[in-house]
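WP5 quarterly update. Target: palmitoyl-CoA hydrolase. Source organism: Fundulus heteroclitus. Length: 365 aa.
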Amino acid sequence: MDRKEAADEMDKTVAAVKKVCRDEGAGSDQGTLFQLSRVMLPDDANIMGTVHGGIILKMIEEAGSIVGTRHCNTQNGDRCLAALVRVEKTEFLSPVFIGEVVHVSAVITYTSKHSLEVQVKVIAENILTGAKKLANKAALWYVPCSLQNVDKITEVPPIKYASAEQEEEGRKRYEAQKVERLETKARVEEAIPPPPNPEDAPKERYTVGFSQSSLIHLVGPSDCTLDDFVYGGVTMKLMDEVAGIVAARHCNTNIVTASVDAINFHRKIKKGCVVTVTGRLTFVSNRSMEIEVLVDADPLVEKEKGKYRAVSAFFTFISLDKENKPLNVPPLKIEGEEEQRRFEEGKARYLQSKAKRLAEKERQQ
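Structure tokens (predicted):
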């Protein structure tokens, strides 16, 4: 592929994104559209050369944050930053490898008075052959926070819709995610026990306790936005890393992120907090593992505020052989009523997701 052909391909990608703007009911002005591209490096990938899901999630959030912040500052009033509050279920459709260029396109598809929906597409390009593949699709929800007062949510400028039907579809998505966020927040306030101490009696292999893992991270300036709160993408990357460790400990094979259930950002995390990111297996099918990941923040300076639950999500991983073909996953050994309850809830989510995929496949045929 010569330079002219490559340029033509990129023009087609831009045209496709603009079509998404029209199809999803977004405005066609440049303020509602943003693109970023980056080549994938060895630091972005696992030992098999597959790019970590957390890297892709971080790029998705960066694009969403930029287009959201840019749009919310197109009107007079307080300057603001778009803060991530929720990521809808995200499927990793194709693996991305070292050396490929990732193109992330973000478009605003719905606005309410105080929030906006951003839909993102991720295209991976092999720059040696010119081949491109759809790697990921995601929908994110943001609220604009004033730089003068971070607790103040500013108003979002409305976008233009292609039709009243598309605006109504966006409103339905908005109402649905609002209800789910409230339900999830009420469910995840329970404390999660610490991982087993290596000096204690070893846990039996393939149990929840055997693979449960935690990362502890001190939030520094490089993790934060202009108002000293953590970027959502930084948190998602840490969550993916912990989930990957859990999956690898359970399978002892090469593992990759297959999907992420809705990620809910319950409370902001400020610079100087110590965050504890904990992952534990909740459900295992023949070919996949569901891992619950919880993020707790503990302010170092303002200790009177105490530790709190900041983010929660379910990650799904699959096990692969050396040729990147799926392997069977070892069954999970359940211990106690609480683990059994979480297993049954995970099974219900798995069956529901499977039914949705089959229905979508039939609809496209």
